[in-house]
Design brief:
Strand order of the largest sheet: 2-9-7-4-5
Shape: rod-shaped
Radius of gyration: 28 Å
Strand content: 35-45%
Distance between the termini: 108 Å
Number of strands: 9
């Protein structure tokens, strides 16, 4: 910084000074944009990370909502708040998975971070997808109807 002019007869002993801005912001985001689990598992553990400064407390809201998975049948929808204390760089939350005996395609759950409080901002990985893979094995017919000729003696 350079001070150039003063008014009212003021003078300065130091006319040059160096200003150092310390970055104390952090980024909070999912550790991955995709998570996967089999239907037989009890919980999917989702990791949220804080990158950068951890010298202040920060909190962020999370939510797990249905996309192709059905809440109450494939998983339990959940939401809450994660708090990062001083020096804490990771937090987790669980999405409960519900097993059934139906043979089905993979199902997806939307994961979202919002409403960061404290110092920092939500990073680019504020949304993620949890894919639930089926664990059931089934046998099915190749067609819904068949025709056979009756053979007689």
């Amino acid at each position: 910084m350079l001070f150039r002019s003063f008014s009212g007869g003021a003078t300065a002993g130091v006319t040059n000074a160096q200003l150092v801005i310390i970055d104390n912001d952090g980024v909070v985001q999912f550790s991955s944009t995709t998570y996967s689990i089999t239907e037989a598992a009890t919980n999917a553990i989702i990791t949220v990370q804080r990158i950068g400064a951890t010298n202040q407390v920060a909190s962020v809201n999370f939510a797990a909502t249905a996309v192709t998975a059905v809440a109450g049948q494939d998983f339990i929808a959940t939401n809450g708040t994660l708090t990062f204390g001083l020096g804490v760089s990771t937090q987790t939350f669980a999405v409960q998975i519900l097993d059934d005996s139906v043979v089905e395609l993979p199902k997806t759950v939307q994961l979202r971070l919002s409403n960061l409080t404290g110092v920092g901002f939500i990073g680019t990985q504020s949304n993620a997808v949890l894919t639930i893979f089926d664990n059931d094995i089934g046998i099915e017919f190749a067609s819904s109807s068949f025709t056979v000729a009756e053979a007689g003696p």
